[in-house]
Design brief:
Layout: E1 7-11, H1 26-36, E2 41-44, H2 49-57, H3 61-67, E3 70-73, E4 78-81, E5 84-85, H4 91-95, H5 97-112, E6 124-126, E7 131-133, H6 142-155, H7 157-169, E8 174-179, E9 183-188, E10 206-211, H8 221-225, E11 230-233, H9 237-250
Parallel strand pairs: 1-2, 1-10, 2-3, 10-11
Antiparallel strand pairs: 3-4, 4-5, 6-7, 7-9, 8-9
Length: about 250
């Protein structure tokens, strides 16, 4: 009898397993636990490890690492197989502090000239493998966040910002992706979510990826469109459940 292909399911976090910036529900947690009895699960988010742990495990690192076979933050630049950590990558080592400062200075000048309904604090967040730039500021409230989402969809604030960054800094081997609801992610070329695939692609015959920002320019696009994966565009956690159920039923 022919052996079934070895399959793994890989998930984005925001807008896929959780509502944007919210915690995972108990129903989704139980659903994933049942799914994991049939196939291994991996999660790859653009946020830092602390934020992903907060969203998926209520700040409990041990719970997070025991709930998935692989956990990747910052697009895979910090990752775990079980409790074993992979090597950590560093954006400052990749492009140097001089170019980083040039980028940050430009971004701060650009964001200072954008007129928004409100602006708050934490406009630049430095992570291991990327710089996260938020025109409204990551200190905004949930209500202010949703107001920005509407304003951004109508005015293309982040799309224009990403394009200006691309024009000025693409020469440094950087990519610019719309991240989550309020920011633009900046990272070295190739350090998108496909980065995590190197750690398990040879162990599986089929890799399903589920994400909500899969259109060009979104931070799920590269892994969604990669030839090594079968990509699924989802519209939220409930849709993720439905699509996962369909995949499991087809195995």
């Amino acid at each position: 009898m022919r052996a079934l292909p070895k399959t793994i399911l890989v998930f984005d976090v925001d807008g896929t397993l959780t509502a944007a910036r919210q915690g995972i529900t108990q129903e989704m947690r139980e659903f994933l636990a049942e799914a994991r009895k049939r196939v291994p699960l991996a999660v790859v988010g653009g946020s830092d490890f602390k934020k992903i742990t907060e969203q998926l495990a209520d700040h409990d690192k041990d719970l997070l690492l025991s709930s998935f076979d692989y956990v990747f933050s910052e697009n895979g630049l910090l990752g775990f197989k079980g409790t074993d950590a992979f090597p950590v990558q560093s954006i400052q080592k990749a492009i140097g502090d001089e170019k980083l400062q040039e980028l940050i200075n430009f971004a701060l000048r650009y964001m200072s000239e954008i007129q928004l309904p409100v602006k708050r604090g934490n406009f630049v967040e430095f992570r291991n493998g990327m710089i996260n730039l938020s025109p409204i500021g990551r200190s905004c409230s949930q209500e202010e966040r949703m107001e920005f989402v509407k304003f951004d969809s109508e005015n293309g604030i982040r799309l224009k910002f990403a394009e200006e960054l691309r024009k000025n800094f693409g020469k440094y081997g950087l990519q610019f992706a719309i991240g989550g609801q309020i920011s633009v992610d900046v990272f070295p070329t190739g350090w998108d979510k496909t980065f995590c695939l190197q750690y398990f692609e040879n162990d599986y015959d089929v890799i399903h990826f589920f994400g909500d920002k899969t259109a060009p320019g979104g931070n799920d696009h590269e892994i969604f469109a990669d030839e090594r994966t079968i990509g699924h565009t989802v519209e939220g956690p409930e849709d993720t459940r439905k699509q996962v159920e369909a995949v499991l039923n087809a195995i």
